[in-house]
Amino acid sequence: MNEISNKWIGRNTIRPDGAEKVTGRAAYAADTNMPGMIWGKVLRSPHPHARIRGIDTSKAEALPGVKAVVTAKDFVDFPADKPVPLGIQDMRWMSRNMLAREKALFHGHPVAAVAAVDERTAAEACALIEVDYEVLPFAIEIDDAIAPDAPILHDFVQFDGKPSNIAGKLEHKLGDVDAGFAEADVVIERSFTTRPVHQGYIEPHACLVSVEPDGKTTVWSSSQGQFMVRAMTAFLTGIPQSKIRAIPAEIGGGFGGKTICYLEPVAAILARKSGKPVKMVMSREEVMRATGPTSGSKSTVKIGAKKDGTITAAQGVWYLQAGCLPGSPIRGAAGCAFAPYDIKNVHALGYDVVSNRSKVAAYRAPGAPIGAYAAECVLDEVAEAIGMDPLAFRLKNAAREGTKLAYGPVLPRIGYAETIEAAQKHPHYAVPLGKFQGRGVASGYWFNAGGESSAQVNITEDGNVVVTTGHPDIGGSRASIANITAELLGIDYNRVSVLIGDTATIGYSNLTGGSRVLFASAMVVTESTEKVIEQLKGRAAQIWGIAPDQVVWENGEARPIGEHSGNFPSMTLAELGAKANATGGPIGSGTQSNTIGAEGGFATHVVDVEVDADLGIVRVLRYTSFQDVGRAIHPAYVEGQMQGGAAQGIGWALNEEYIYDKKGRVDNPGFLDYRMPVCSDLPMLDAVMIEVPNPKHPQGIRGVGEVPLVPPLAAISNAVYRALGKRFYSLPMSPPKVLEALDMPMAAE
Amino acid sequence: MAKTHVSTTINGDPREFLCDPADSLLDVLRGPLGLTGAKEGCGSGDCGACSVTLDGRLVCACLVLAVEAEGHEIQTIEGMATGDHLHPLQQKFLEMAALQCGICTPGVLVAAKSLLERNPDPSETEVRYWLAGNLCRCTGYDKIVRAVMETAADMREAAR
Question: Looking at the complex, does the CB of residue B151 fall below 8 Å from at least one CB of chain A?
């Protein structure tokens, strides 16, 4: 790690994009317009499962004001038997998710799209499109999809040599679980279910696309990655990437749900066909029906331990809903569930199950909360069975430096044990509780990611700094980048501007996802800034006529050292910036890198709940998160990640769920009936940051954004158990379910 | 369909627009009037991202018909700062990192200002219930509630 003074790193600076965000001037995707712009709308399937025999668009095309109509035939065809991967996605599935091809696979699946002079005309035209459907039987829930007589969604999906809705399997093995369970004094096995939940970003998907007559395509859109937008638009439309400029609008929340494209390629072909810029904005109902969510699941976990608290074996099997096309986050569930623990014998299995629901999208630590929910609830029961405090039990088995995880890696220095110790010592853990109140704990792990990032650091002629990176800023990352740049250059934070480049103005940068943005961008910004400092020292040396190694950069100034020490007055960034052209030209440097060393993140949460026995409402009384954050470059935004993740976890545990009617349609596609936590539902959410620097990063950064959503589901379940003396094995623990449980006699479990 | 002419006052300025009878106030604010600070998160009055005031009353612009603006006074996020001088709530939200993605922020600020005009010394519970109509998915509300309460304290101090 760099020796740094910490003048700016660790300061809660005001974000560079702050003023426009509190005045309403920040331009989100739906806020952008163009002269001559027209509106695109999507026609969606009224059936959860139907073969498309034909589409007649003639009446829609004849409606006055309609400028273009498209169906899947207007896009690149990706045969189902030839994988075309892009990151973790596959273009075979992305193309069919964007517009139905052979079949409509869920209620709300896009079938065609129209561009017209205004939104109402476009909607009217959609209603005139005639689709000849052969309605097919459908399956929504996992059990229905894996039943022997289940309707098969895809002929090309086979499992064990037979057509199946199980589209994939993943297995991690370490040691010998049978031998491990044989050594155990206590073995507990439980089965769980969770419901699909939506990422719940407040900003619906939106884009504006203009295609010039020469084919130049400009995309303004809300996404977690302008380079993902460029690549997917290119793949799905056939327009070469070099012709596409994807400009990242400010993004109104993503949480993983904006790591794939729904609208941009459709708008691009509508724009090309119509010769006009096309704007598309989803309604909230479209967002709820046809984007995200994350998987619903069923799982079984078995854990064995000795009386002294040593876990001897852990086994888990998770079935995750992929939605209508393959690709659920089984890796997150099976890989992260047992990762906080040093367990010699582990067997984790995940199955990817397709059914007639919208295709799942990433949601904050995809799969990991589902894995941890089952594992951490069973751990709680095992701890109770052997008479150990749940935190002490976790600490005894905590993964540490050198622990081998079942999914492969050997852990470097981590701060997991520190999160447990901090929870044990925290006043929260000792507060007495009353009737119908309970305290639960749980831990969680997330992989974190590195990957491709680019940065350019330029010195202006007046000696200030402009930093350009390639990642949409969802939670304040610009402020952290400015803190780091100011720190390295030894200048005031306010002299650093941080911009997010578009695909034409900055080098390739992977998604804002995987908790990777600050880890990766700090690396490339650091390398670029260090190169700039070398340039600045060289320029000063040139002016002074001494060797560059006789110059140091300190406190924002070049200073001669050694035999020249004191011979020349120091030169500031402003003075060197002003002389740049006379000393060799503009000063600036870029770095493009595939970053590595993003080590995993760990957290432990403690929560107190109270159950309202009359209404069945579970209220969160107090919540404290303890997380190894590596190094908090901007502590308030790190706390913000921890608090936001806890709040989403509270929603997932207590209220949020997709409800389907008997016809296979989402019955609660709006914020009134899909009940996310509101301000009056929550207490303050305390965040305790523990800084165990990542040894593989120049500032010690670990990803912090996703692990906060991993522990809450189990922590709250464990708290409800202690409040009622009764365990729930399915989420959400919503009022009807709680009331039903309260009405039943306390079972002898 | 014939358009309706509407004369109204927005952020203190007289404004006129033509609208369809079915247009919401949010449609005309974001469309012909070019005031895109109010956001459409749901279009059904559930998220509060389009919060504005109508004659001082806090409303969701998506639930008000544009024609209802006739003869009334609308205040939007664009009217909250004075010149380049941010409202104390805006400044405090920046200082306390009470926003992450920022999409709910204009609506939350308009709602919080409306609260402090009625109740300069709200309790935490009063803040939480007043803001219960403004969904935020990023922050868990913690820093928002703290920022509103600190601003209220600062404004009370300044008014002494």
Answer: no
> Is residue B1 over pLDDT 90?
no
Q: Write down the architecture of domain A297-448+599-743 according to CATH.
A: 2-Layer Sandwich (3.30)
Q: Does B81 touch chain A (CB under 8 A)?
A: yes
Distance in angstroms (rounded) separating the CA atoms of residues A525 and A361 = 30
Mean pLDDT of chain A: 96
CB A318 within 8 A of CB A246: no
Distance CA A568, CA A333 (A): 61
Interface test with B, best of A120, A197, A202 (most B CBs within 10 A): A202
Edge to edge, what strands does the sheet with B4-10 contain?
B13-19, B4-10, B73-75, B51-54, B57-60
Looking at residues B14-18, what average pLDDT do you find? 98
Q: Is A253 left (phi over 0), alpha (psi -120 to 50) or beta?
A: left
Q: Taking chain A, what is the end-to-end CA distance rounded to the nearest angstrom?
A: 52
| Continuous segment of H or E residues that includes residue A196 | none
Residue A746 confidence (pLDDT): 53
CATH homologous superfamily for the domain A32-136+203-252+258-290: Aldehyde oxidase/xanthine dehydrogenase, a/b hammerhead (3.90.1170.50)
Q: What is the ipTM of this complex?
A: 0.98
Query: Quick count: other Cβ atoms within 10 Å of Cβ A34?
Result: 15
Q: Average pLDDT in the A328-349 region?
A: 98
How far is B101 from B103, CA to CA, in rounded Å?
6
Which of B46, B124, B143 comes nearest A640 by C-beta? B143
Which domains, ranges and CATH numbers included, belong to chain B?
4-79 (3.10.20.30), 88-159 (1.10.150.120)
Predicted confidence at residue A3, as pLDDT, reads 47
Helix%, strand%, coil% for chain B, nearest 5:
40, 20, 40
| Residue A69 and residue A40 in contact, taking contact as beta carbons nearer than 8 Å | no
Q: Do residue A679 and residue B129 have CB atoms under 8 angstroms apart? A: yes
A positions 459-478 inside 8 Å of B (CB) = 474-476
Q: What do you get for the CA distance between the two ends of chain B, in Å?
A: 55
- For residues A393 and A247, what is the distance between their CA atoms, to the nearest angstrom? 50
Burial of A744 (0-12, 13-18, 19+ CB in 10 A): exposed
Closest by alpha carbon to A119, among B136, B126, B22? B22
Domains A32-136+203-252+258-290 and A297-448+599-743 share a fold: no
- Tell me whether residues A253 and B138 touch, CB distance under 8 A: yes
Asked which of A156-165, A415-424, A428-437 is least confident by mean pLDDT, the reply is A156-165
Q: Which residues contact A191 (CB under 8 A, 6 or more apart)?
A: A298, A299, A300, A729
Between A203, A475, A643, which is nearest B39 by CB?
Answer: A203
* CATH 3.30.365.10 at A450-595, yes or no: yes
Give the DSSP H/E element, type plus range, for residue A656. Answer: none
Q: Where are the domains of chain A?
A: 32-136+203-252+258-290, 297-448+599-743, 450-595
Please name the amino acid found at residue A276. K
DSSP string, A612-641: ETTTTEEEEEEEEEEEE-S--SSHHHHHHH
Instruction: Measure the CA–CA gap between A378 and A562, rounded to whole angstroms.
Output: 65
A706: Cβ contacts below 8 Å, ≥ 6 apart: A364, A365, A368, A446, A448, A514, A515, A601, A645
> Distance between CA A155 and CA A545 in Å, rounded?
75
Contact A411, A405 (CB under 8 A): yes
For the record, the structure tokens of A591 come out as 């770095």
Best residue of A11, A20, A22 to probe chain B, by most B CBs closer than 10 Å? A22
For residues A278-293, average pLDDT: 98
